[in-house]
Specification:
The structure is a homotetramer of 227-residue chains. The first copy, chain A, is an all-alpha fold and 227 residues long. Chain A is 73% helix and 2% strand. Chain A has two domains: 49 residues, Homeodomain-like (Arc Repressor Mutant, subunit A, Orthogonal Bundle), CATH 1.10.10; 163 residues, Tetracycline Repressor, domain 2, CATH 1.10.357.10. Chains in contact: A-B, C-D. Chain B binds a DNA duplex (21 and 21 nucleotides) through helix 1 and helix 3.
Chain lengths: 227, 227, 227, 227
DNA sequence: GATGAATGAGATTTCATTCAT
DNA sequence: AATGAATGAAATCTCATTCAT
């Protein structure tokens, strides 16, 4: 009961934070504003989330969970389809997610920027102590793993030809998604036009590109030019 | 001060800022530290750069200039090669640049996150008044245009087959390299391994992928799956 | 905070400020020092008093209140005495106050220098926004009015003969005591000697002079000399 | 020649300073502004006057000289009149001077506030080193002495009866003048009305008061009231 | 001697975070 | 657990004053 209540409260706070962050961006957002919108005081806010960064991580975590849920749904939906299809569907899912969840997308991008393996000393204390940051670290690879798993299935069922390590292919797909979501962040939404180009077309080209990569063996040793 | 002298001074300050930002990250960096490293006082620092954000934008601008210079060099170097080669070389250049210039890479990523067309209220006042931010806005599309130009040349010389709008192809390539640089930012450098995968391999796969896209006509209307 | 508590806090800060200002003078006083002496931080100091000038005005206001209280006590004490006596007692009170409260004296002199009716552009922004400056402006004439009231009473009871407007006589008395307090500010205290003259003697002469003015009708039209 | 040139320059700077100080007050005045108005740069200004305080002292000194000149003229003009007349004329002169020379008046008042015999440690270094401050210190008593001298002459010729020390009487007159000029500073000019009272009337009352004091013997031992 | 640039000291502001009740 | 007040760190600004050329 108590626990449940606490969780509800946390959720409502995160929701408020989402709104504020969405409006003015993380950096400009003030804890005071979040608290106000959540109908509590700043100090209460701090009893739930010990730092601004932790709050942001909680939001990130929520976004990541939402994305994962989407992934699981896709996996389930396409479980009887070839692995190629489900793999591409995951890609598609991520891009839609980015489009529909601006703040989450930003948060996720930001998260993956933060976790520089090499530079733990650049992490703030607040972040190191963030429970949600720890949670994220425990699961952040899941997104690659789920994708890799579908690619592996595709290899088994013959729909995917490329012989590279599934994690490698998964990472490659990820780079395209990230790039897409970055462009999206800089432009607005799927219906937006940038240089007269529709984001939707860009998405489709990315999907087709991914498909081509998956159904072909590609020689990455070939030297394309002399530097 | 003579313009030249002032510029020299600015440059030396930016260089100091680079070192500080590289060491502790933008957020933790103190203006006092930057000033000290530049051998000036805080106030002098402020007469040159009116805010921390402006200083960061100056650094970003310098990074962007450096990247553009690299682009121009590549374009010149491969001016007698087919457009396909130079286009891929540009891509390669960007990725190398990201690898070799960590702070710039981060700064550029940050910049492209910041320029949310629609949301001026997410910009801080300091940023709005930043002369370097304005400068960046004036030229940030150049990177796409240069790339598009080479693609266009490739079409002319027959090395590039894909019939899409060059800007579209340029943007698509951009998504991949942005993704790459983001992964890079999250991992470290080219020699780093992420999921046992070498960044160098990722780079090569991206180049090959880009090549495939450029030398083929791709149907982006095909429906890959039912949602 | 409860109003009462806040006021206590304000008072303790003003007390600290008095000590610091008394020791090193307004100009050399540092807000940091005041805060330290008050046992708070600079920022807290600023939440109570928004500027150094406002703090000084608060001190001025306190000094003025103290002076007014002294006036009320005198008025009460001499309420059964002739108006002449109470009027002179007020004068005397002011001079004693100036003598005993160096910082207040200086602050009040400073205040009366500052309020140049016609020249709002000589006021700093901080002063214009000072709540205590406003408070002072609301009551600074009280000192004349209280004095004028006693003079009026003196006229009624026949102890004061001079037929001029009580406010005029009050202002005239004011010029003498302001002059006295100024000389005092420049010399030190009542026991000090300036040109071998005791401040105490000066005070007494001023009182006698005031008395003469009050108990005589004076012709101010008489031409004393040709210019 | 050189010396003369330098003096001319100094004079023109002081004149500029007067204008600036008159407009915004000493505290708000910026050296930059003074320099600009004088048609020189800030640094040049500093070669002439080593500090803002010194500049202000120079202005004060000029004002004092002007006042003294006025005194000498009066003394000369009334040298064949009784000492009472010339004494009052001096008083009158001072009040006119205050009226006509707002900045000087303020500067003089300020000067006499500053020279607190007891508190040398409150003097700033800049002031201690000010050549004009030293000059002022050498002559600031002159104003009292000139006045005392005329009073003494009045005693000799029988026009002044009061047997007090002439310096004492002089100081007493001074307090009234100071008070007058303070009130004037707070109100504007001679034509201004404060509490419906004309400053000119105030001046005349002060003169009459002074006259009464000078032509009567006054008992300053009399106890006017019990405190 | 004149100039543009820089310094130094301190005022003021902004917020995330913490304390006391 | 909630609240109002306070803290601490750093950004930013203002100017008198000084330096280097």
């Amino acid at each position: 009961m108590k626990e449940e209540k606490r969780i509800n409260k946390e959720e409502s706070i995160i929701t408020a934070a989402e709104k504020v962050f969405n409006k003015v961006g993380y950096k400009n957002a003030k804890m005071e504003e979040v608290a106000k919108l959540a109908g509590i005081t700043k100090v209460t806010l701090y009893t739930y989330f010990q730092s601004k960064e932790n709050l942001y991580m909680a939001l990130t975590y929520r976004g990541f969970q939402k994305l994962l849920n989407g992934y699981y749904q896709i996996i389930d939906k396409y479980k009887n389809e070839p692995g190629l299809i489900s793999s591409l569907a995951l890609l598609n899912k991520f891009m839609d997610f980015s489009t529909e969840n601006f703040v989450y997308n930003e948060a996720l991008l930001n998260y993956f920027s933060t976790i520089r393996s090499a530079d733990e000393n650049k992490l703030t204390d607040a972040l190191k102590e963030s429970i949600y940051f720890k949670k994220m670290q425990d699961i952040h690879n899941l997104i690659f793993k789920l994708s890799a798993k579908e690619i592996l299935r595709g290899k088994s069922d013959g729909s995917i030809i490329n012989s590279f390590d599934p994690m490698f292919l998964s990472l490659h797909a990820w780079t395209m998604i990230i790039g897409y979501s970055k462009v999206l962040a800089a432009s607005g939404n799927e219906d937006t036009t940038i240089f007269h180009i529709k984001m939707k077309d860009l998405k489709n080209l990315i999907l087709q590109t991914a498909k081509i990569v998956l159904i072909n063996n590609i020689d990455i040793e070939e030297n394309l030019f002399e530097l």
